Each structure stands twice: as structure tokens, then as C-alpha cells.
Amino acid sequence: MSLEVNITKKLAHFTLNVSFRTENECLGLLGASGCGKSITLKCIAGIVQPDSGFIVINGRTVFDSKRKINLPPQKRRTGLLFQQYALFPTMTVRENVEIVLRHRAKPQRKQETDKILEKLRLCEFSRQKPSQLSGGQQQRVAIARMLVSSPEVIMLDEPFSALDSFLRLAVETELAEILSSFSGTILFVSHNRDEIYRLCRRMLILQDGTTAAFGTTPEIFCHPETLAAARLIGIKNIAPAFAVNIRKINVPDWGVILETNQDIPDGTNYVAIRAHHIREAQTDETVNCFNFNVARKQNEPFRVQEMLTLTPESGQTKTPLIRFISGSQDPFFSSQEIHTVRRLCIPSSHLILLKGE
Description:
Mean pLDDT: 87
Distance between the termini: 37 Å
Number of domains: 2
Largest sheet: 6 strands, mixed
Radius of gyration: 25 Å
Helix content: 10-25%
CATH topology of the largest domain: Rossmann fold
Strand content: 25-35%
Number of strands: 22
Shape: elongated
Strand order of the largest sheet: 7-8-9-3-10-11
CATH class of the largest domain: Alpha Beta
């Protein structure tokens, strides 16, 4: 089952302009709060009407501004799981699920409700109300209510945001298992890059209503291409830069000129490197190797973070601050003391060249 979206919607601080096509997969929508992720889902579900464009679900046009088509939510066959689950507090688990089938005959309602409650292991809670359930159980009820209507597209709007951190991984694993049997398209909205990486084969990154990146999840994490995408996938070491020639780039904030292992694309104005790719220079290695001071060190339970400064070279009048954080658990990093001088390498093979405003 496919989903094709090409819409615009003028909002308070920007204009949403989203275009993508996906089919029989879990597509992640990653972005900061307020970037347009949730409003995109609401437009697809029919809760919010776009200003222009079209939405096609499995070959059916559910919205088209030019053809004056705008099907109501109940006719779009989409399922939307809200952040807070939106369960009816005065209804039991069974009643919360069965209400979706209220227009069907009573025997059919009971049969289909029994089936979904059994599938999601909710039978023993069927007479309880939402307030008597854990966060993970409430989410299963909301998913049951969504699936019982046989949607062609499932949309999950930050489904773990209402859960305590220690519950998230367990509930995520359970959700992935439940959704693995769904044969249609799933849209998974999050501002958590790790959730997207674990659950979604492809991803779309939104920034202020526009697409900053769209492609396979591993490819975007390896080659984000834009400044916005690099920031959202968690790269910490990013700085403005400009090309010196086709294979050298100047990074004034870091006080270095770096060699690249690829031709620098036109328009490149930022460079980045992941913390764990910084390494100790090998004997006689010179390319992108510099002496650094460990200016600050922060020990965490499972890693060590260090802020590094470039040591003054002959003729320099000031020491530029290098905004590098070594996120390594390697004993080499963890054993360093403050102000220790180390010769480190910024491998050209791991440099990320970016375009951004």
C-alpha cells in the first residue's frame, strides 16, 4: 500500500511544504519540536486541510486542492496514534476499542474487538479503565483501537513521549513486534534520532516545514549533506568552512585547514566530523594531524567527553578553541588528564561536507 503526499500549508511561523512517496514501509519523520511533523500527519488524516496540493492513499485521492477533493477522516482509512493516546477515561478498555466499530452490527463489533484484544494481549484488562493501566498498556489499547478499523496507513506521533525513560525501550520493542505484521505504510514521527534509526528503513528530516533530507536511514546518518540534517542526527562537531582548493577546506573556528578524500562540492560552507572518528595520530602520520590540549574532561557512566583546543604553533598569537567532543570509551581517551598534549588525527575519510544557511 502506498502513500503520496505533496502539500503546502501556511502556518504561524513558516509555510509547510512537504512532498514524499512511500510504500509498505516504516518511514521516519525526524525534526525538532514545531517543525511541521505533527501537522503533516493531521493533514494526511484529514484533521487539518492543506492550502494546496494532493494526498493519495493506495491509489485513492483523499485530498486534491485543484479537483476540490477533501474526504473526511472517517473515509480516509488512516490510523493516527496521538502522543497522549486520547483514550476515553470513563470507558473500559473494551469500550474504548469497540466504539470505533459503533456503526457495525453488535455481533461483528464483539468478534472484531475480541480478536484485536487477544492479539495485543489485552483480554485480561478489558474491563479496566485507562487510569488503571500502565503507560505501556494504555499505548497497546490505543494501538488496538487504531488497528481494529483496518487502516491502510498507520501514523504514530511521538508514541513514546508520554512514557518514563526506563519504559521506553521495552515499549518500543513491543510496538515494533505489533507493527511487524502490518502490511501497509507506517509513518513514525519523532525528534529522537535513535528511535528513528532503530525502527525506520527510510527517513525524512523536516526543518521549519521543508525537507532537509530524504532517503534511507543509514545513508542519511552517514552522509547528511545539509547542516540541518547533520544537527538533527546528533553530530556535535560542526563548523563553518570554505574551500581552499578542490581537496582542501579551511575551518576558521577550529584554526585548521583540512584535506578531504573527495572533491569539495560547490556550495559547501560547513564541515563536520563525529566525535568517535577522532583518533590518535600514527607514527609519522601528517595529514590532518594536529597537537591538541585537553581543555575540559567530563566522565559519564559509559563514555568520556573531552573538549580540545589546538596548541599554539610557532608564530601564532592566540589559541583557537576546537569544539570537538570525544565520545569514545577507548582507554586512550579515558586516561587523558586536563591540559595533556595529544597528537590527534581528523581522518579525511570521515569528514562530512555540508551545505547550510
